[in-house]
Amino acid sequence: MNCAIVKEWMPHYIDGLLSPEMELSIRLHIESCPDCAEWLEEAKAMSELWSEMDADREQLQAQMDFPDLAADVMTHIEQLETGRRSRATKATNVRRRSAPKTSWIHYGVAACLSLLLLQFGVFENLAYGITEINGHMSNSVTQWFGGFGR
Ligand SMILES: [Zn+2]
What we know:
Belongs to the zinc-associated anti-sigma factor (ZAS) superfamily. Anti-sigma-W factor family. By secondary structure, the chain is mainly α. The chain has one domain. It has helices at 3-15, 20-32, 34-79, 84-97, 101-120, 122-127, 132-148. The longest helix is centred in the middle third of the chain and has 46 residues, at 34-79. It is elongated, with a radius of gyration of 22 Å.
């Protein structure tokens, strides 16, 4: 277990998505590595941020479901006559509910990271070439985003 792997899997570690063995080896590494421990704290803070965003999203979706509910009732009424619209409504529902939740989480991470990085001026530094000072940070960022792509 090394720092690169720990940081790559950290989002899953926080979400509790890892196997017990993986989780244990990451936890052991973090306990013995101040650098990764710091990462974990930052990642947890971001995790709280994006869970807030997630709550907002669910609220939004609940509002969006409202007209759907009315449409469902209408559909059931009309179903007595034709049943044609019922199938259309079901198809719409399935498509929306099967949208992977993780993509929203990744979007949240990316958004939070971008915000943080902009605050730290990392993007600005990247534009001028990676110096030794921010090289470590940039590598870490690449690992984060690289991990999401898989
Ligand atoms: Zn480490």
